[in-house]
Amino acid sequence: MRDLKSLYLCSYVIVCMFLTGCLSRSSSGNVAFLDAPDSPVSKCPLRVQFSCFQPSVVHVQVLVTFDTGSTSVVFHKHWNCEPGRPRTRVVFVGFPDWIVYRPDRVIRGSDWALSCLLRGWIGPDETSGPDRFFGASVSIPLNIQSPLSRPLKQHQLCANWDTDLLWRFRRDTPQCAQENEAASLLSTLYASTGERYGIIKTLQPFSNPVLEGQRLKSIHYPWCAVSLWLLLVKPCSNRFCGLLHHIDAENNYASPTVFLTESGKIHVQVHGDAGRSSAFLSAFKVPLYQWCRINLEILGRMVKISIACIEGQEKFVQSAEHTFGMNIMLDDTHGYFVIGGGKFIQGVEGYYGPVTYYRTQGLSADRAEIHLPHVLSKVNITGWFQSCQNFRSELELFSSLTGRRPSDCCLDPYTELLLNHSTVNSTEQLMLFQSSADPYRRAVVQMTKQLAQKSGRLNETTVGRKLYALVLRRISRAHNTKVFTRVMPLLLQSGCLGDYRALHLSSVLYSTGFTDKRQTYKAWLLALLAAQKDWRLALMRLGHMHHVGDLEVTADRDLSYAYYINIARQTSVDQKNPSAQQTFVEVVRLNDEETLKAQTSENDDLFHWLKLQARSGVAEAEQAMGRMLFWGQQGLSPDIQTAVKHYERGAIKLNDPVSMYDYAIVLLTGQGVQKDVRKAVTFLKKAIEQGSVPALTALGWYYEQYEKDYEKAVHLWEEADAKGHADAAMNLGVFHSQGLYPGQPADPRWVAAGKASAA
Q1: In angstroms, rounded to a whole number, what is the distance separating the alpha carbons of residues 745 and 740?
Q2: Which value, in Å, is the radius of gyration of the alpha carbons in the chain?
Q3: How far apart are CA 611 and CA 621, in angstroms?
Q4: CA 365, 370, 376: angle at the middle one, nearest 5?
Q5: How many angstroms from the chain centroid is the CA of residue 189?
Q6: Which helix (H) or strand (E) is 310 found in, with range?
């Protein structure tokens, strides 16, 4: 794994060197390192040559990446730059001792450093980061030796007698690693979409024999606790929704399992030593749009559940407890824990905060106190919901005043109260909203007025879409990046009204600094809001952020996987149901001239030439036309119906086996044509007669799915596998693992073999 990480970082460094080199020029100025070192050294004098075309700030920084995936800035210096001729400045770069020298009694060891990057850039101010697109920048990778290959530091001061003696004693004495009894299952925020996705965590036995002995003794009489933070945005839509559950190695629910019911109450379930499970229901309900800390304590046979919610300065605290008539079993190393939804249950719609599991003890008095975690205060999701609700209420009120109110139109109680009991008349209320101090309300006022006068009621979703379209028009017509600052209020209004594209775009702008400055917590907030609504680009952004450790978070691969698996499963579903709204992602390298020449459009000569070739009876042209139009490849927009016509013409008129296979697949699935299984099978058999190997696999799939004739399916897949078709090998592996292979028992090892053959 470490070699793979090193390979990835080396590739990244090579790309950075290719893009920037040791000298960088841009519209902001020039910056170069004249005598950069090859590896980290103590107090290295570095000559920096720089010039700028406008008042700017020059930055020099050293960035270290560790094998844990985290990054750290170990040196950063900046100074002002005035326009003029190139100048040179000597900067003494201070590398920390733990990356230069071997660990000893003074220099403590650190995490394994994978790479060290010396970089410089010119930015508009002290807080600006390196911007490879608009600002001058230079990056130089430095070679890092392994800790034991580095030189020893000759310390100028001698250690005290007792310090030196203690170090000599510890140097030859094995030391037990420090272990924390509390396991952090989640240290940051997680946006839960309410689907069957969640964070999977496994726990290992303690290395400390005392702690491990205590854990083993408590398996049949547990004494532990779980504390989690939750913000619920919608009630549970099923009988149960997963909050936190434990699955054992046999895929059964184990202790503890905590569900949210459709009525908003908490269902707590435990597993006993007699092999049966028991549960109880809390009397209280989990409120919406409030951060609540839910504590679960298992103290022998007694289970306590409590909730403490914070709304502004007010706190809501309730609890319940239940004593079971059996011994509870809890082996936390047996199976895995799931935060949110999982394989067997859907999750809640909302947000998780930090989740901590105390493995061998209950909650002390200080842990029972209510303090909102720092990360929840900084991201401030509740503040967004409150501001958004105020804006939508004002918008609803304005719409009611400007439009015609039909007799059968029912307003929400808040708006009805304002209309009927406000001391300000309707005209004054209208003027107040229109003449607000916020100049960016003009666009939303105009759109709302038009929709209200046209339909008599407000359609928030339509207003949000129109605001987002307005933002895109303004950005496309702009000539500088200042437009991003001007359109940001419109993006936030659009996101508040339900356009999640606007939330994602505003998150990207805040994180990159295209506005006045980078605002990492706002970017994080907006990405969470869009991801919770299942917006894929936001899910991808958060997955990457937690994978590498970005913004204000450390790397968490389990959390990253929870976001990535959501996208992966949606993508696999989309592949089976293509539509004109989808975009096919192609890898096109700028130095690949052959691939670049193959890019075309509906009005391009290449497309018309292929079209002419297809009409002339060239089978390869028919194949290319069908593929490009079906998936939207090589610069074309998807047109499934037209693609199917090309498949049909190639199959029937040209008797082409590739087109026969493609046409049979769309007939089997009903994509772009009426579903006709019998006709599809006919074309698959014709394609097989002409040597089509994929048709063998597809026909085997037909016998499995429609005829339930596993012997024929396996026979066809084995023939296709012998001819090197990867999908056939995968299907055979699945059959072996599930015990469907005729005459053979289930063998899970065949799945790995099938995947290896497919790879």
Answers
A1: 8
A2: 32
A3: 7
A4: 135
A5: 12
A6: strand 302-311
Question: What residue type is 520 in one-letter code?
Answer: T
At residue 683, the 3 state secondary structure works out as helix
- Given a contact cutoff of 8 angstroms between Cβ atoms, the answer to whether 706 and 677 are in contact is yes
Contact (CB, 8 A) for 549 and 69: yes
Q: What separation in angstroms does the CA of 757 have from each of 83, 158, 379, 524? A: 62, 62, 46, 41
- Give me the pLDDT at residue 172, please: 60
DSSP calls for 331-348: -TTSSEEEEE--SSS-B-
Q: How far apart are CA 219 and CA 360, in angstroms?
A: 10
Backbone conformation region of residue 451, classed left if phi is above 0, alpha if psi is from -120 to 50, else beta: alpha
pLDDT recorded at residue 262: 94
* Contact call for residues 321 and 299 (beta carbons, < 8 A): no
Look up residue 7 and give its two tokens: 């390979």
Pairing of strands 56-66, 240-247: unpaired
**Tokens in use for 258?**
């905590």
Q: How far apart are CA 550 and CA 546, in angstroms?
A: 7
**Closest to 311 (Cα-Cα) out of 389, 203, 386:** 386
Contact 354, 188 (CB under 8 A): yes
Take residue 152 and report the two structure tokens written for it: 């020893």
Please list, in sequence order, all residues whose beta carbon lies within 8 angstroms of the beta carbon of residue 318, skipping any fewer than 6 positions away: 283, 284, 306, 307
Dist CA 403 CA 405 (whole Å): 6
For 55, residues 6+ apart whose C-beta sits below 8 A from its C-beta are: 80, 81, 82, 83
Half-sphere exposure of 74 (CA within 13 A, CB side): 25
**Cβ neighbour number for residue 217 with a 10 Å cutoff:** 12
Q: Round to whole Å and give the CA distance between 644 and 630.
A: 8
The values of phi and psi at residue 336, to 5°, are -155, 160
User: Two tokens at 491?
Assistant: 């993006």
Q: Which residue has the tokens 């900084």?
A: 378
15-18 own/partner pairs: CB under 8 Å, 24+ apart: 16/117, 16/139, 16/141, 17/139, 17/140, 17/141
Tokens of 662: 């493609």
Separation CA 73–CA 91 (nearest Å): 16
**Cα separation, 276 vs 200, whole angstroms:** 24
Give yes or no for a cis peptide into 742 (omega within 30° of 0): no
Average pLDDT per consecutive 10 residues, the chain (759 residues; last block may be shorter): 41 38 61 89 89 90 77 90 90 88 73 80 83 70 78 75 69 62 93 94 88 86 93 94 94 94 95 88 94 93 92 82 92 95 94 94 70 91 91 75 46 46 41 46 70 67 87 88 87 90 92 83 94 92 89 84 90 69 61 66 74 83 83 77 88 90 89 89 92 92 89 91 89 83 68 48
Looking at residue 184, its pLDDT comes to 93
Tokens of 477: 């017509």
Inter-helix orientation angle 693-702/710-722, to 10°: 160
